Amino acid sequence: MIFWRVKSLDSILATAEKKALIRTLGAFQLTMLGIGAIIGTGIFVLTAEAATKAGPAMMISFIIAATVCALAALCYAEMASMIPVSGSAYTYSYGTMGELVAWVVGWALVLEYAIAASAVSVGWSGYMVGLAENIFATDIPTTFTNGPFDNTPGIINLPAMFIGLVCMGLLIVGTRESARFNAFLVFIKVAALILFIALALPAMDSANFQPFAPNGFFAKNVVDPISGHMVTVGVAAAAASIFFAYVGFDAVSTAAEETINPQRNIPIGLIGSLAICTIIYLLVAAGAIGAVGAVPGGELASSKEALAYVLREIGHGWAGKLVAIAAGLALPSVVLMMMFGQTRIFFTMSRDGLLPAAFSRLHPKYGTPHVVTICTGIFVALFAALFPVGALADISNSGTLFAFALVAIAVMVLRRTQPGRQRSFRTPLVWVVAPLATLGCVFLFTQLSGYTELMFLGWAAIGLVVYYFYGYRRSHVAHPHLAE
To answer: What is the dotted CATH code of the domain comprising 22-476?
Structure first.
């Protein structure tokens, strides 16, 4: 039976109280955390990936991805306000569909958060290398700036590895300090995007939007004109990739246990950050396409620093440097929040007995889960050092789409099984919104490359083996005495 060992919501809340994190975050901080987690590599770097896959029709890709995220956000908001503890989709699944489903979700969230942090680290590296080359008018060898699996292979991406380890150190120091640092970085990158919009929109040329959808709508495999490898293209395929640009709003829900008045503030942080970012994204995409075009295989598609490239091409080299500097300063905030989300997922799984107790050990001075933060930091740094940003983003999306679909299902399950439980935020039109969110996630998952889908299935299989040999035997729900 799949739906076994369901942990009651009252039990989840009681467990959180035994080893609770300190509540320090308010609605404004949560919204800043959400914007900080969302705006990053997706818009600064993956604009080029979207251009390769969809051409100018990537505008539609942004809208499709935003719509699916908005539907999922409404479901997340209800679950987070009902169950204000760390754990995100993992905790929600545990309280509705049982331990096995919760484990698979928690394991999938490793792909969402840790691999996403690696992808953003690689994106940061691209902007920093491009800025250095532009300032010093030189070409930096790819040996130590590209991983071995890049289109232009190197040995190791040292800048990406470096920033992952720096963010690990910041998270060990403390949540409040990280949140303050993040709010400063959010301001910088939003200002950079506003500057880009102000300069790129006036340079728009309607001719650059033709042909609008050169690769059609649904995903298909073609030869990449840049690398010569087979790639998945199409408007829907671009939406599945650019979905990464919106991932991060759910990191707000992982901070529920550290939030003041979570029933009110979590929904504000979730929906507010997503709405603000969607408007910014559409304006940036329109400016980039209109200014230089988005021909698959063109200069924009091959750029590792897409927005800085656009500004240089339209005669604003000074602004291109400023945007590159802003990306260099601000992208670490996304790495920070993705790693934050990952550590809190494993912290909660450890607290439930499904992972070793060391993962829920708190630092004696800083009060943060330092052991799991160190493990996550090393994992993030290694993947960032070896893999290209596009591959990392797609793998991350596979775990995210799976988790989002399960949250939408969990909302419907709880509406049936516990209709009387207090919900300070209720998903509007839940029997329309939740099914559409589920179907949207499943559709985008099918538009990812076959390689990415196989990677997800392989990762899930490894997780089931780990669960059988450890979590199944150590679960506090099945063996309450182990929680003593």
So the answer is: 1.20.1740.10
